[in-house]
Specification:
The chain is of the alpha+beta class. The chain is 55% helix and 17% strand.
Length: 172
């Protein structure tokens, strides 16, 4: 490059100086807007950070998070423990008495009250027993007849059938 070329550039810059200054001013103004935008976002972020750390002076965030993770692990272990207990209780409940039907009746005409009864006790699978108590003046008798899947292999009296029907109605 020689001196002649530099003078051309100098003349170009001098001739277009107002436009160059205008472009530089626009770039500075744009940089100022970007700076203000970044400052506003940084302020909001700083505010959120201070709110998150409120009341935690001197507390290590990592230690705090590890503590919360340990609490979550303990909660998960407790939930698993409760789930096992639920399944155990569910199995116990399946074979426990869940449905009951009772019919009181007067077994003998000379007795004044419904002192005799038939009672059906069934589990969730319709298995159980029908108990009958026949009350008389001189003696009482109790009979038990097994029930499997809602049926008895033994002959049932009308009252026992009614008690079984009442217990079976609870399945509907």
């Amino acid at each position: 490059m020689d001196i002649m070329d530099l003078s051309k550039y100098t003349m170009f810059v001098t001739a277009n100086l107002p436009y160059i200054l205008l472009v530089l001013t626009a770039l500075i103004f744009l940089a100022l807007l970007v700076f203000i935008n970044v400052n506003i976002k940084m302020g909001k972020l700083n505010k959120r950070y201070r709110k998150m750390m409120e009341g935690m002076e001197g507390v290590n965030v990592e230690r705090l998070l590890n503590g919360h993770i340990e609490e979550v692990r303990q909660a998960v272990n407790r939930v698993n423990e409760l789930d096992r207990e639920f399944h155990r209780l569910d199995a116990v409940a399946a074979v426990s008495i869940q449905h009951l039907g009772v019919v009181r009746f007067n077994a003998f005409d000379d007795m004044g009250s419904d002192l005799s009864f038939a009672m059906a006790l069934l589990d969730s699978k319709r298995n159980g027993v029908v108990l009958s108590s026949i009350y008389g003046r001189n003696e009482s008798r109790v009979y038990a007849k097994p029930i499997a899947n809602g049926q008895s292999a033994y002959h049932l009296t009308d009252e026992e059938k009614q008690a079984l029907s009442k217990a079976l109605e609870k399945y509907s």
